[in-house]
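Hey, I was hoping to borrow your eyes for a little while. No rush at all, and the record is pasted right below.
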Amino acid sequence: METKQQLPNSTLVLIFGIASIVTCFCYGILGLIFGIVTLILEKKAKNLYLANPELYLGYENLKAGKICAIIGTILSSIYLLIIIGYIVFIGTMLPWSEVFNQ
């Protein structure tokens, strides 16, 4: 009888997924980075798990980390778009923009 081992990167996926939510309001950049890296790591670990599910523990961490990463990526994307829109809006309101409109 083989002992089950921890699925590689399952804890890291969970930590990065949570970090993507926590850092989503850091102008959206950090949350996007953590979220995308988490989704890539989760896919690789999931493929490894699905090849031999009887060998590994920690699939629950993968599922939870993926959900957190999706939420963090969506929030980060929305926040980043808001920041970009704000910069564009403020840029059109500055006095020097009138020079280019003449």
Notes: Residues 59-93 form the longest helix (35 residues). The chain has one domain: 5-101.
